[in-house]
Hints:
- By secondary structure, the protein is of the alpha+beta class.
- It has one domain.
- It is 33% helix and 22% strand.
- The protein contains two helices and three strands.
- The protein is globular, with a radius of gyration of 13 Å.
- The mean pLDDT is 90.
Amino acid sequence: MKKIEKIKYPATCVVHTPSGAVNCCEKHALQLSSLASAMGWHMNRTALTEEAECSNCVYEKENQ
């Protein structure tokens, strides 16, 4: 039986960027939206349909 890991960095939404969908917490969703706006991109944000981790938080913690 596979052990289910607890989510350490919960995502609240999915941000749809030109390079693909990214699970994000509120902090990172706002940062990506600001970056997209500065670069002239339009980004869409949708609610999550299941539990997921913020991929940016995970990346930050792994690369400290």
